[in-house]
């Protein structure tokens, strides 16, 4: 996913709730607050694709199709 897709995800209240859960769980494991920035980065990196696939299947399918249509970069050697 690109940055625009991730920004769009962060507008969803359910995603914010999931990030807050992740923040609480990981902070409990660590014994200190890991901070909202780290929790957000980790959640987006680790769980956003699965969350989108389950909660927004149409949007996920559209992203996958769009990604497949994008031309691949060819390196010159």
- Helix/strand/pairing class, anyone? mainly alpha
The geometry reads as extended
The whole-number mean of residue pLDDT values reads: 89
Q: What radius of gyration results from the CA coordinates?
A: 16 Å
Residues in β-strands, percent: under 5%
> Domains counted in the coordinates: how many?
1
* Topology, number of strands: 0
- Runs in which pLDDT lies below 50 for 5 or more consecutive residues are none
Alpha plus pi helix count: 4
Offer a quick outline of the entry:
The protein has 77 residues and is mostly helical.
Please provide a written account of the structure:
Helices cover 75% and strands 0% of the residues. With 77 residues, it is an all-alpha fold. It has one domain. The two termini are 28 Å apart. The model has no long low-confidence stretch (mean pLDDT 89).
């Amino acid at each position: 996913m690109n940055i625009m897709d991730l920004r769009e995800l962060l507008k969803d209240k359910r995603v914010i709730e999931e990030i807050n859960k992740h923040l609480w769980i990981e902070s409990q494991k660590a014994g200190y607050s890991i901070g909202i920035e780290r929790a957000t980065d980790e959640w987006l990196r680790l769980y956003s694709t699965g969350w989108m696939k389950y909660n927004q299947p149409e949007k996920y399918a559209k992203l996958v199709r769009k990604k497949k249509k994008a031309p691949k970069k060819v390196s010159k050697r």
